[in-house]
Amino acid sequence: xxDRKYEDFxxxxxxxPGIPQLRRTLKNERLWTEKIMRNGMKAKIVRxxxxxxxxxxxxxGTIVMHKTYANFCSGSVACK
Length: 80
What we know:
Elements: H1 6-10, H2 26-30, E1 34-36, E2 42-50, E3 53-58, E4 63-67, H3 69-74
Antiparallel strand pairs: 1-2, 2-3, 3-4
């Protein structure tokens, strides 16, 4: 195989031509991830568009939209 990414090799996405490959994506890995925010509330990712566009649902039912995954990981997303 030529002109393939190293990332594809690591994730096992290089295979026999013409056969669809199952590939893990960050979206599948990060969706529904739960974390406790700095304010003590549990939060869960309910939509993952990209690392710069996620929607988060807090334990009280509030949904905060268009936040970054980095802010979610650091616990700095506030429930407004």
